[in-house]
Amino acid sequence: MSEEDGDGVDHGPTSSHRGDHTGGETDDRNRARDLEGVVAAVRDRVDPDEDERTRLRDVADRLMERAETAAAELCADTDVLQVGSTARNTWISGDRDIDIFVRFPPSLDRGTLADYGLEVGHATIPDGHEEYAEHPYVKGTVEGFEIDIVPCFRLESATEIRSAVDRTPFHTRYLQQRLDDELAADVRLTKQFLKGIGAYGSDLRTRGFSGYLTELLVVEYGGFRPLLAAVADWQPPVELDPEEHGRETFDDPLVVIDPTDPDRNVAAVCASDNVARFQHYARSFLERPRIDVFEPDDPEPLTEAGLRDHLERRGTTPVAVRFEAPDLVEDQLYPQLQKSLDGITTGLDDRGFDVFRATAVADETAAVLVELAVSERPAVERHEGPPVHVRNHAEGFYDAYADDPDAYGPFIEGGRYVTERDRAFTTARGFLESDRLFDVGLGAHVETALEDGYEVLSGDEIVALLDEFGPELADYFTPRP
Ligand SMILES: Nc1ccn([C@@H]2O[C@H](COP(=O)(O)OP(=O)(O)OP(=O)(O)O)[C@@H](O)[C@H]2O)c(=O)n1
Ligand SMILES: [Mg+2]
């Protein structure tokens, strides 16, 4: 997806009218026709065809039967159901995870539930492996489909849940009652739109819109187009409560009270930037419908020469702290990196090294990259004391610095004592290489990683990041909404 007229080519199917008319009504009609054309083209790609549906149905049915048999042998009163987007007809063609939930009576304790769940999982997918979320479950691939076999408790209401997965069957039931074929198609379209703009997914790297949230929004507004029209005019905080049963207040830019649980905001992880991003592209797409909004961008990786050009043109100074990436799953790693990024930029700012923009990247190694507007400071810094008339404080300040041979002052300026004393760090690099870096509020795992050693890159040395982070650096230097 590229913003506005990037390549000058309109990928919408009908662009011949451009410039033919000036009337507002005609423009509206043409836009509506463009939008329909784009929607048809996207649906052609995201709607699973009959063959895909049948194959999925076959595999799902077969596995559910196996899971039912295995569960019945372990425990009475169990049942098996399919959940997630493949159960609701809202999956995007080619994205094929089949989530199968095995429900056990709530009289079981958690440990037994976990053991039974794994046993059923292994019986259902013999070459599956165990993964760990809130509790362990079995995952595997069957005929090209990614299968999860997840145990949960069978409860009367989603408010009694003991873990997050217990809610999922309630979501499925709620949506199955409300999604018809038309709305399900609009959900697929909206998911692809959000993927195209980089705002789909409730993982903690993306902090965007989850599948369930997308479905609720489409149902609530009655389709893709009305949803976009509403989003274009949102005034956050936006609060939706489809079942009108919410009883808590949330401090989030988007609040969608879970129809199955009055105390949960389904959009709790959705970052304000992603809400704003959705608003931006909703407006821009309604104004000029085009297919490339639905396509995630793959920027050309940056070359060394390209990177040097950017830096010279911008006149900023980059610094980076590079270390071995902590061995964590992404949902733990990215919050750690974000926290460390915030700490490091604040630490630099506090010492007079003005931060222009910054990012954190991770692969084998991780790096916090900070682009500085100011990377060097003079040997001395100003230190302002109290107004002279505040006698107690003023005398204390004066006495503390009067005999300091390295300080200039104290002198009086604007009625206050001021002194100029030696600065602890005259370069950003000096600060980053010092132990003071550990005072800035790093993520705990990042702190441990840094204790094992890290490297500071500054100025031109930054090109060393290109091999590993070429695409990320390209993204950084071609920012878009
Ligand atoms: N943050 C999340 C993630 C998942 N779920 C529940 O778990 C189900 C399966 O999750 P997932 O596969 O991530 O989402 P899908 O809805 O299946 O969407 P997609 O098409 O992206 O797979 C969801 O439908 C939802 O009921 C949830 O409530 N909250
Ligand atoms: Mg899914």
Automatic annotation (TrEMBL):
InterPro entries membership: CAA_C, CCA-adding_arc, CCA_tRNA_nucleotrans_2, NT_2-5OAS_ClassI-CCAase, NT_sf, NuclTrfase_I-like_C, Polymerase_NTP_transf_dom, tRNA_NucTransf2
Alphabetized UniProt keyword annotations: ATP-binding, Magnesium, Metal-binding, Nucleotide-binding, Nucleotidyltransferase, RNA repair, RNA-binding, Transferase, tRNA processing
Annotated segments matching region Disordered: 1-37
Residues annotated as domain tRNA nucleotidyltransferase substrate binding: 186-295
Role: Catalyzes the addition and repair of the essential 3'-terminal CCA sequence in tRNAs without using a nucleic acid template. Adds these three nucleotides in the order of C, C, and A to the tRNA nucleotide-73, using CTP and ATP as substrates and producing inorganic pyrophosphate. tRNA 3'-terminal CCA addition is required both for tRNA processing and repair. Also involved in tRNA surveillance by mediating tandem CCA addition to generate a CCACCA at the 3' terminus of unstable tRNAs. While stable tRNAs receive only 3'-terminal CCA, unstable tRNAs are marked with CCACCA and rapidly degraded.
Complex and partners: Homodimer.
Taxonomy, superkingdom: Archaea
Cofactor: Mg(2+)
UniProt-annotated binding residues for CTP: 85, 88, 171, 191, 200
Protein name, per record: CCA-adding enzyme
Family: Belongs to the tRNA nucleotidyltransferase/poly(A) polymerase family. Archaeal CCA-adding enzyme subfamily.
